[in-house]
Structures are given as structure tokens and as C-alpha cells.
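Researcher: Structure prediction, please.
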Amino acid sequence: MGVLLFELSLTFYFAATIVSIIELFRGSKATSRFILIFAVVGFAFHSASIIARYVTAGHLPITSLHEASSFYTWCIVLIFFFLEYRYRLDLLGPFTMPMVFILMLSSSVFPREIKELSPVLQSYWLGIHTFLAFLGNAAFAMAFGISIMYLVQEHHLKTKHLGGLFQRLPSLQILDEVNYKLIILGFPLLTLAIITGALWAESAWGSYWRWDPKEVWSLITWFIYVLVLHARLTAGWRGRKAAMLSIVGFISVLFTFFGVNLLLKGLHAFV
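Model: Predicted structure follows.
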């Protein structure tokens, strides 16, 4: 049942992505509505698949690359809905759903078997630490999408292409503000994830920090977003500079998530 629910969610996210591409070229109220409908239905099936896997496994399903990619995608869609409700940004779907589909598709190619938890993972810290990390990184993913929207809108303004996408994209000021608020949301979540991870490590191995590759790259990512906030608050880096730093931060997030697990070995490697 869980596999079927996952495949159905992937199908509806794919449908939302196709309509999102159409929305970029021939947008209308109908296409925007269909994007949201397909995303909601996909999210419902996705939530049901996670619940089904939780019931089968007996723990939060985030201990393999398949599960982690799926749960990360779920968190991104959750924040996407929040932004839709809070800001109602035009063309947010086309800059979000392709990313959602790609992450969900990557989840589908990783092994799906459920393995027994190792003793170190049999802890209440598993849900706390990982949920904070995934939700924080999901906020950074949405900040990445908003940053791309900003750069596209800025390009249209500089080249004086004031039709088409320019008229449908939100203003640069709104996009810059939303990007900042997403980083403000994600940064404390990532900070708490690192802190809870250190507490978990101390209880499991007797040491708060072991210079594991994922620990190191999580810290690198944290410092990048410290730089983003510091540059904005003290040097007045807004607009394009803030958007570029946000994109760099998300690249670091992706490497921490995929690159470390696929290329490097460490205590946090998925089994």
C-alpha cells in the first residue's frame, strides 16, 4: 500500500510540474488552480505513504536515502502551501514544483526496503533532530526558489522586457522580503538541529562533536547562512547579492544531503 501511495504522489507532483511549465508560458487562473489542486492531492497521497511506512517500520521514516528524500520533499511542499496561504505569490508553483518532482523522483530510484534500526538510532532524538533539520532545509529550498524568481524578475527589468513574466512575477521588493523571512525561519531550525545532534552524539558516543563529514558540512552550511544574515543586517546586502548567497547556501544544503551520503563515508551515512 505504501508503494502505491508513493507512486500516486509522484504522479500528481509530476502533473503539477507539467502544468507549472505551461503556467510559465501561458498562465491563467485555471493553470494556477490546477497546480494547487495537483499539489494538494499529491501531498495527501504523500502524507499517507509516509504514515503507512511509519506504521510498518515503527519509527519516523527518514533512515535511508529513499525515506529522507521523500520526507524532505514533503517538508518543502508543506512550506510551499504556507507561502501560498500567507503571501499568494504569483508563479510560485512553477519555481517550486519542478524541484519537488526532481527530489521525489530521486527518492524513487533509491532502494526502498525497510531495515531494522541500529541501536544508536533507537532514540527519541531521531525524530527531534531530523525533523528540525529537514524543515530548516526545506525553508532554504523555498528561499532558493524565491531567489531564482528574483533573478529572473531582475533580468527582465534590466533588459526592459516589461511584458510576459515581468508582469506576472511579484515585485523585487516582495521577493527579497520573502527570501529573507524564509532564511529567518530556516536558520534557527538548522541551529537547533545542530544543537540537538550534538546532544544526541554525546548521549550515544560520549562526544558532542566527532568531525563526521555531515557534521562538518552542516556547519559549513550554517556559516553560509550566518554570512547571509550578517551581510544583510550589517552591510545592507539585499536584492541580488542576498539572492546569490541564498542560492550558494542551498547548493551547500544539497551537497550535505546528497553529496556527503553518496560520496563520503561517515557516521551519518544512510544504510
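Model: Residues 125-158 form the longest helix (34 residues).
Researcher: Thanks, that helps.
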